[in-house]
Amino acid sequence: MFLLKLVLRNAFRHRLRTFLTVTGLAVAVLAYGMLQTVVDAWYAGAAAASATRLVTRSAISLAVWLPASYEARIRGMEGVKRVARSNWFGGVYQEPKNFFPQFAVSDNYLDLYPEFVLTEAERAAWLRDRKGCLVGRQLADKFGFKVGDVLPIRGTIYPGTWEFVIRGVFDGAEPGKVTNHLLFHWDYLNETMRKAKRRADAVGVYIVGIDDIDSAAAIAVNIDAEFRNSLAETLTESEQAFQLGFVAMSDQIIAAIRIVSYVVILIILAVMANTMAMSARERTSEYATLKAIGFGPRFLALLILGESLLICALGGALGMALTLPAAAFFKTVAAIFPIFAVSGGTLLAQAACALAVALTAAIVPAARAARVRIVDGLRAIA
Amino acid sequence: MAIPLSYVARNLWTRRLTTTLTAGGLALVVFVFATVLMLDAGLKRTLVGTGEHDNVIAIRKGAETEIQSGITRIQASVIETHPAIATGPDSRPLVSKETVVLISLRKAGAQKPSNVIIRGVSATGLALRPQVKLVAGRMFSPGASEIVVGGAIARGFDNTRIGDKLNFAQRDWTVVGTFDAGSSGFDSEIWGDVDQLMQAFRRTAFSSMVLRLADSDRLDQMRADFDADPRLTSELKRERTFYSDQSRALSTFINVLGLTLTTVFSIGAMLGAMITMYAAVSNRVSEIGTLRALGFRRANVLVAFLVEALLLGLVGGLAGLAAAALMQFASFSTTNFQTFADLSFRFVLTPQIAAQTLAFSLVMGLVGGFLPALRAARLEIVEALRAA
User: Fold this and answer.
1) Model pTM?
2) Phi and psi at residue B237, to the nearest 5°
3) Which residues, in sequence order, are CB contacts of B26 under 8 Å at separation 6+?
């Protein structure tokens, strides 16, 4: 009890210093949490992938199309339930900073994505209108799109300005699904390109729906074998592997963010270690006095460790408490990532970092205080 | 009379552990700050260095990158005959009709493939890019399934040494040479014969054309002529503008992310400096009283503590800058969001960045030290002398 009381008194002896240290810790723990969340957000696409979908694309790269005739051949293969076409449109709505993904998809595309829900009436309205399109709820909220609006979108890959009429808004079946994209009819794209006599009957990727998850690898191998040595060889992989491919393209950026998130821990370690070292240094004669009246070196070490733990617990808790509102704020202000949620793992990691900082910062001062000779200590001037 | 600098410096030296820890914190922030600026400078230098001033690139209207663009053979032959284009020694126009395709290649040690630009060029394409120099092997021969690879590709990707074969588009392509394109974007590309590549990829249209202007000022006239010609759907951009436009999204991303981080981190480091300086003041109250009693004024004391804080910032700044300077030996490669292709660039330390970094560290020291210095200056002589 006496130890606790002493720890508490010591921690708040220099109110200003403790306040500054706690603030610094909170900022660092907050920054660490935000950086971890940024890294998580990068992987969100892969986490949302379904095991019952495969993606077939050109073996050369995603920028090369596959012939539309492959659809029937893939559909006829064993284990394949459905095949949908999907082309990346890459258009610009008003100006480049309004970026959102647009896909030209075949009519059965939504059957493969049960996680996007749309009313039957809206779906029927979309199917009836060749220039119709569907937008996700997040996208509709961001730009204030309503059913019936006409969106002019300037093509970058497909020339000209295209007009799409919104016929429906789809929701995520569960919260946290990314719904910031636009879907329109692949047939509309194809007919227009046929008239232009370029890039017609070309499919970006085939989404292959399967029933048996265990045979996914075998089906992928079969599809690729079917088209080997043809003019357009294919590469089939699980949707997750396909999404991870995009993540891997920026792996050095992710690695840099990871490194930097540890740098912030080092920065705060330096600040915290400094605070503890200064406090211990100033109190050398007190420690000597405590020793002189019979307290052992273990007591002194615990005293310093306790103070360090207390300050770090305060700073860590404050930082963690701020992380959730900060993430929510960041999500609305800088809408770079469609999913930006703080995971439980991130909060745990923040707590672990605060604990590690507390322990490391206390080592040197605690050892010094435990070792100090009473005579030297009593003589010491701060 | 001012308080001597040696007094200030010795104060830092006496409390070595505290000084080291505080300066260490500052140094880490400065390191992050400097590397972000260096990365952005490297990216800019790479993409600006990719273009020649008098080279003009023609792409389809509306396309933002060469991958998205297309120019038919008929259009290409119309463009080729424009009088504003310079002619080479063989009196043919200095024009390169190129095809650009992305292929997937595996980075050394990576699980997932990255996209790499493979560019089909004609013989004039090499003449138009004087910064591209062959460093090993030989150039591809026209009409053969041969390729040459840029320096960054040769260093960073599997299976790209001279003599290795890459398989794509139903053919084996032999790597016959490595070229060095300085620090330009071409260093992250693979080049081959345009006719061979177009056949292999079953392309009927070129992706883009690069032209050399006979006279730098004739670009506007050429643009007007092209706009008036109903056969053409291309737009013209100076090569430099074209490539720097392509880096904009990545550059903004690096800057926003990096500067947000440094701002947040610098708060932590400034708090550290403030803690240290407050402690320095409270430990030396009687010393300050003595100085005042000796005749030094409040302003002198204020300046002395500010200088101490600045010195602390400078030590941290120099340490951080020195660490950042070592990053010049490293290179960074990532996918450019706009072209969807892998781009490799270096950390570039310019004198301007060094100056900015040191200024930043001094500001952090100053901000951290200001309030403590003010407290020191406002101490009353009598009370300060009594404090000890």
Assistant:
1) 0.84
2) -140, 145
3) B269, B272, B273, B312, B313, B315, B316, B317, B320, B361, B364, B365
d(CA B209, CA B220) in angstroms, rounded, equals 17
Is residue A345 assigned to a domain? yes
pLDDT score recorded for residue B372: 93
Chain A stretch 293-352, residues whose beta carbon is closer than 8 A to a beta carbon of chain B:
334
User: What's the rounded Cα separation, in Å, for the pair B338 and B117?
Assistant: 13
Q: What is the reported pLDDT for A336? A: 66
Domains: count for chain A: 2
What residue has token string 């290795």? B164
Transcribe A267-313 into DSSP letters.
HHHHHHHHHHHHHHHHTHHHHHHHHHTT--HHHHHHHHHHHHHHHHH
Q: Flag if A157 and B261 touch (Cβ within 8 Å).
A: no
* pLDDT above 80 (res B310): yes
A109 within a domain of the structure (yes/no): yes
Q: How far apart are CA B261 and CA B250, in angstroms?
A: 16
Domain extent, residue A96, equals 60-232
CA gyration radius, chain B: 30
Q: Does A263 touch chain B (CB under 8 A)?
A: yes
Q: Tell whether A147 and A218 lie within a shared domain.
A: yes
Q: Let me know whether A321 and A227 are in one domain.
A: no
| Contact residues on chain A for B264, CB-CB shorter than 8 A | 27, 30-31, 264
Q: Give the residues across from B364 on adjacent strands.
A: none
Report ipTM for this prediction.
0.80
| Claim to verify: residue A269 and residue A224 sit in the same structural domain | no
Per-residue model confidence as pLDDT tens digits over B22-68? 899 899 999 999 999 999 999 888 887 788 888 999 999 888 888 88
Q: How many CB pairs under 8 A join A and B?
A: 161
Tell me the residue ranges of DSSP E strands in B5-79. 55-60
In a domain, A77, yes or no: yes
Instruction: Compute the distance between CA of residue B182 and CA of residue B179 in angstroms, rounded to an integer.
Output: 9
Closest CA to A186 of A235, A127, A118: A127
pLDDT digits (tens, 9 = 90+) for B178-205: 999 877 889 999 999 999 999 998 888 8
**What size, in residues, is chain B?**
388
**Can you give the residue ranges of every domain in chain B?**
5-48+248-387, 62-232
For chain A, say whether B255 makes contact (Cβ under 8 Å): no
